[in-house]
Amino acid sequence: MPTNFMEELVAKWYEYKGYFVKRNVRPHPKELDVVAFNPNVKGMPQLVHVEATGQTFDKREKEKFNEETDKLCRKLFKGFGTIPQSVHKQAVVMKKRKTKTAIFLSSICRISSATFSRIRT
């Protein structure tokens, strides 16, 4: 499945921050949007699973955050060094307003317009 704008933005952000990124992982009917791994975040490895969605984060997306997908996330980066047992789970929701599109990145980052321009290109 092609990457949507939100998935692309999230993937680019993690690549910019030095993570190895896998997109659109399809182990079963539930596709994982973005899985990112950085072997050295403040001296510790970090593994992140991000679901990017449109207006709402509904039951279908919530079901993707489970132990089965955590195991898959860890397998994706096998051979990259020490893989943490815990997977940080994050949701990115785009909410449209009348005048402009506001992007909420749940505990990922706060993007200024300058950073947003750099990531988009």
Straight-line distance between termini: 22 Å
CATH class descriptor name:
Alpha Beta
Q: From the alpha-carbon coordinates, what is the Rg to the nearest angstrom?
A: 14 Å
Strand count, sense and barrel status of the largest sheet are: 5 strands, mixed
Write the CATH fold name: Trna Endonuclease, Chain: A, domain 1
Number of domains: 1
CATH architecture: 3-Layer(aba) Sandwich
Low-confidence stretches: 98-121
Count up the helices: 4
Give me the count of strands. 5
List the strand order in the largest sheet. Answer: 1-2-3-4-5
Helices and strands, in order, run as HEEEHHEEH
Content of β-strand: 25-35%
What is the global morphology?
globular
Structural class assignment:
alpha+beta
